[in-house]
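Dear Dr. K.,

Following up on our conversation at the group meeting, I've run the structure prediction for Dihydrofolate reductase from Streptomyces avidinii. I'm pasting the input sequence below exactly as I used it, so you can double-check it against your construct before we proceed with anything downstream. Let me know if the numbering doesn't match what you have in your notebook.
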Amino acid sequence: MSDVGIGTGKVVVNRAMSLDGFIAGPGHAMDWIAEYLTADVFPEVMAATGAMLVGRGTYEVAKGMADQDTTYDGGAQFVLTHRPPDEPDPTVTFLTCGLEEAVATARSAAGGKNLEILGADVGAQCLQRGLVDEILVYVLPVLLGDGVRFSPPTLGRIDLEPFSNTQSGAITMLRFRVRP
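The predicted structure tokens came back this morning:
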């Protein structure tokens, strides 16, 4: 697993999901998440987070939603991409290295806290390569009907062990350990 020799923090795939299994709506829309999930709903998650690693697509969607209250203080932010933007963003570090190196870099920056993995593609790649310790899912009370699924069909089977579920208002947070 990914905790060999690096602090006590875990690598956690963090997702908000509609009840019908979508993490983004049609056209990668994620504005529906902000209707339910704000930084103060589960403050213990942000308190345990030292860094975030996101894919370029998720970064672009979040950047487009910057006028909404969707920013979280999850520590250092890293974006894994093949194409860094022409104009740098001082709030993030763009990484063009391989996935394992990106996870190690972001995990080191987390300072012993958790590294949150956001984004469908980066999350699936981390799961495929055995780099994930836990999955945290916020199930939101909405049916989207279409959009970006929780995992791509190419992911294959990943066995999980449920260890926590918490209700906060309309949101249910589910937590799973990834079985080796």
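Two things stood out to me. The chain has one domain: 11-27+41-178. The chain has a mean pLDDT of 88.

Best regards,
J.T.
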